[in-house]
Amino acid sequence: MNAHALPAGADAVLRYENLNAYYGTSQILHGLSFDVPAASVVCLLGLNGMGKTTTLRATMGLVDRTEGRITLNGREVRGPTFKRSQMGVTLVPEDRKVFANLTVAENLEVARRPTGAADDFTFEDAVRIFPRLGERMNQKSGTLSGGEQQMLVVARAMLANPAYMMLDEPTEGLAPNYVEAIATSIRAARDRGIGIILVEQSLPLALAVGDWFHIIENGQIIQSLGREEALADAQRIEKALTVE
Amino acid sequence: MLAMSLALNGVVLGSILLLFSLGLTLIYGVGRVVNFAHGALFSLGAMTGVWCTQLGLPFWLTLIVAPIAVGLVGVFIDWAILARIRDRPMVDSLLLTFGLALLITGILYEFGGRTVQIMPVPGALGGVAAVGGLSLPVYRIFVSVVAIVLTVALILFLQNSRWGLRVRAANDNPEMGACLGIDRERLMHSVVGVSAGLAAAAGVAGAPIFTAYATVGDKILILAFMTVILGGLGSLRGAVVAAYVVGMIIVFGEGYFGGQAALMALFSMVMAMLINWPRGFFGEGRVE
């Protein structure tokens, strides 16, 4: 478990309580409440425009206005984005957002935040999970392929050694071998105690790594399922995620 | 012979522009602020140089004290003013920094900036040096060397320090930088401070050539905006090349065809770049 110490009596959990979020006057989230325990993968599923990405951006303080509470291990997640990141939450955004003019090594270095714990993620871990990055350390990241850029942003987030990591559609448009590498990295992060929120259109990946599943519609959770329930109900969930 | 002399002057103007434009580029890159007050900071640097020498400070000390003093003014400006409009639409920062430029200029008018002040060249840097059959003013060679040394030092620091890595990351994508824990506010304070210090260094070093008065930075500001556009918004290496291109166009244009023709040539080039290659010389500038 990496070192984001818990206050006495607090649960190791990222908790959303009655979260509302707004862009301008448009309300996107309507009273969202759920928990992300440490060392678990919580999948947010739903059609486009239902509020999944907004949930992640609200966590990082990147929406215009929010109401309700987000707490991390009992402490309220608030203030500017960098402070939320320093509290132990990090985001892998949906459109990759590598630092294009920095090399792969520099992208990793700028994010690296050792906590001093024995199981901190290191450069070596990143290269072991994503060997392709090891071959491209001195290459400008803007010149990487889409799949390599996606690996880089996931590795970069892991090197920040967060308590919680949020991934927004990390496999969108990727070839199967890249998807498998992303799945491996999610499992590796979970095994080190990191709590993960995964927003994903691809149900097979979500089912492969997820522990909890929340289906979001119009900014509200309409159904929550455990892993066994989701596996048993996969066909119906897939249908719910398909535009008629 | 004329061409060689013009080339030296082109290098001198390019070097001054380089110091000035690097700051403009950094402030835009990290803060998305088009800083119209940068010219006033150049003037403030030049005037501070004059005040320091009037107080009896040696030239060498002035060259250090004035940039540090103006750099601290830059930190204060960012903390007290620019931070209040962070992430607001660009037009807000345009208007605010334009007002700030007028404010600084007004203050300089009240403290001796209405008249052209002469800053003497120190004895050791006076006279001319014979290079390859040409007589070149020593001070102009000195200014070019100082500008190039400062630029190389800044670039090495940007490439090799943690601060530089963070600046370059935030320059690429400020929002993502914040998601990874980069404190953009503190970073911007330091970036505006360093940029103001560079503008002041250009102002002090340029004062014996361009003289010092309240609006001496205005012409430099216009040329620097052309430099930043040619190099590509936010592109540091673009700014380095563009500064010397602009310096050469202005000096050779003035030398052979007159000042107006030089400006017309420069503005035509900038318009062509904006239309056809808006990302600048290296194609890495930002298009908003």
From TrEMBL, chain A:
| Record carries keyword rRNA processing | no
Annotated ABC transporter domain residues: 14-243
Q: Give GO terms: molecular function aspect only.
A: ATP binding; ATP hydrolysis activity; branched-chain amino acid transmembrane transporter activity
Q: Which SMART domains match?
A: AAA
Signal peptide (from-to):
none
Q: Is ATP-binding tagged as a keyword?
A: yes
Q: Which InterPro entries match?
A: AAA+_ATPase, ABC_transporter-like_ATP-bd, ABC_transporter-like_CS, BCAA_Transport_ATP-bd_LivF, P-loop_NTPase
Q: Which UniProt keywords apply?
A: Amino-acid transport, ATP-binding, Nucleotide-binding, Transport
GO biological process per UniProt: L-amino acid transport
- Family indicated by similarity: Belongs to the ABC transporter superfamily.
What is the recorded name of this protein? ABC transporter ATP-binding protein
According to its UniProt entry, this protein's organism is Hoeflea olei
Top-down, what is the taxonomic lineage of the species of origin? Bacteria, Pseudomonadati, Pseudomonadota, Alphaproteobacteria, Hyphomicrobiales
From TrEMBL, chain B:
Q: Does the keyword Repeat apply?
A: no
Q: Name one GO biological process term.
A: amino acid transport
Q: How does it sit in the membrane?
A: Multi-pass membrane protein
Location (main, coarse): membrane
One GO term in the molecular function aspect is: transmembrane transporter activity
Which GO cellular component terms, listed alphabetically, does the Swiss-Prot or TrEMBL entry include?
plasma membrane
What highest taxon heads this organism's lineage?
Bacteria
Signal peptide stretch: none
The text of the family note is:
Belongs to the binding-protein-dependent transport system permease family. LivHM subfamily.
Q: Which PANTHER family did the record assign? A: ABC TRANSPORTER ATP-BINDING PROTEIN (PTHR11795:SF442), BRANCHED-CHAIN AMINO ACID TRANSPORT SYSTEM PERMEASE PROTEIN LIVH (PTHR11795)
In its UniProt entry, what is this protein called? Answer: ABC transporter permease
What organism does the record attribute this protein to? Hoeflea olei
